[in-house]
Amino acid sequence: MYDVAIIGAGVVGGLVARTLSKYKLKICILESQNDVAMGATKANSAIVHGGFDAKEGSLKALLNVRGCKMMESVCNELGVSYKNNGSLVVGFNDEDRAVLNELLNRGITNGVERLQILEKEELRELEPNLSDDVVCALYAPTAGIVCPYTLAISAVGNAMDNGAELKCNFEVISIAETDNGYKLSSADESVDARFVVNCAGIYSDKVARMIGDDSFDVHPRRGEYILLDKECGDTVSCTIFRTPSKMGKGILVTPTVHGNLLLGPTSVDIEDKSDKDTTQEGFDSILRNTHETVSAVPLQKTITSFCGLRSVGSTGDFIINSPKKGFINAAGIESPGLTASPAIAEYIEDMLKDSGLEMISDPDYNPIRKSYHAFSEASDEQKNEMIKENPSYGKIICRCEGVTEGEILDAIRRNPKPRDLDGVKRRTRAQMGRCQGGFCGPYITELLAKELNIPYEDVTKFGGKSVVNIGKTKGGQA
């Protein structure tokens, strides 16, 4: 019997688990996919929002502002890349200026600090590559950028290091109430828990209905992105937004914490919760909007594109409630959900206390976790010492990103252990450069096969049927 079962190992589920792991609790994280951070967490804008956009008095507003203030400290503890680069919401005309003034006043009401409207001349000094058509912007210096999937992976890993358990490929298909709580079942096994936290993303409404709660719906909103090479990362310094509409914050242009340039997302409501295809229509929309906002974007330096699905709830706000004793929903966590995630975890912690979960502090709890990029972030002297102790750190596997064999092996051996190529990619950035794994992929496959003690051909790209190798040729290597 677990004290708490958390359904979903995205950034919210991961931070809930990490927050609860500081207590003497038996915690289990149930994830339907082959790895953590496989939903919206792995494909979003990676923005730490200031908090001026959410409606006054909403959970989005409250938890966004709180989460923004927490994010840097949380990232420092977890060894996750974070940068306080600020954001600009740009305007092109008097109508946009009126909206920006509304956002300014809303942000002040929400408690966002140091917001201001900048005029054209000030903007040119801050962002020389902005379009000449931009006449003003709302500047939020408290905003930032983060690596969302590394945050989720590190949060889950820190929770596991402090005693939590993770069950991947555990899709919850039924929940039954018991005398002591709930029985959660997959096709193959069941777990019992006194308390349940539903962090199942776009499937959170389906999970809620398993206990009879049909008070909300969640539908997916498609967002397509284009990622440019690292040499493009200084095209802008701030995150550049368009004036928002009812469909979201529009197409943005932003540097990433790893030095790339990210364009997107589109915003299209759909019904199919598995549709992550990229489209020509989506790319055309991104390119058109980008050209209107920022000049001289070197699109010939594009290295990949991708699509993510946001969880849009039917209430217009985060859905964090307790429809039954011992069961908590954390649903409809769309933007600014990433920013709010540390504060959502705190909020749910308080809800569980109020529901009767006894929380006794664990004196052995350790909130600190080493960065996956500790070697690349070390000084030359430190690197030389690490290579002397472990020569695998001196062997470059991914030339595009400069990732060593030692870093890959460290990642494969740490909680939560990756089981596929994309899992290694998210932890180390190996395969994320210009060649997208064309050269390093086979060697990483070999390392995974050896570490997992499975045949070379059984290593997949992202679990399931995502086969990479179908057999050997000429009696030699696969």
Concise summary:
The protein is α+β, with helices and mostly antiparallel strands and 478 residues long. The chain has 12 helices and 22 strands.
Structure notes:
Helix 1 runs parallel beside helix 5, helix 2 packs across helix 8 and helix 10 packs parallel to helix 12. Among the domains are: 157 residues, D-Amino Acid Oxidase, Chain A, domain 2 (2-Layer Sandwich), CATH 3.30.9.10; 79 residues, Arc Repressor Mutant, subunit A. It is built from twelve helices and 22 strands. With 478 residues, it is an alpha+beta fold. Strands 1, 2, 9, 10, 11, 12, 19 and 20 form an eight-stranded mixed β-sheet that branches. Strands 13, 15, 16, 17 and 18 form a five-stranded antiparallel β-sheet that branches.
- Reading off the top of the CATH hierarchy, the class of the domain at 82-145 and 219-311 is best stated as Alpha Beta
Count of distinct strands = 22
Helical residues, percent: 25-40%
| Outline type | globular
Stated plainly, the CATH topology of the domain at 82-145 and 219-311 is called D-Amino Acid Oxidase, Chain A, domain 2
The largest β sheet comes out as: 8 strands, mixed
Strand content: 15-25%
Overall pLDDT score: 96
Distance between the termini: 44 Å
The CATH architecture term of the domain at 82-145 and 219-311 is 2-Layer Sandwich
Radius of gyration: 22 Å
Q: How many helices?
A: 12
Low-confidence stretches: none
User: What class would the helix/strand composition place it in?
Assistant: alpha+beta
State the CATH superfamily name of the domain at 82-145 and 219-311.
Answer: D-Amino Acid Oxidase, subunit A, domain 2
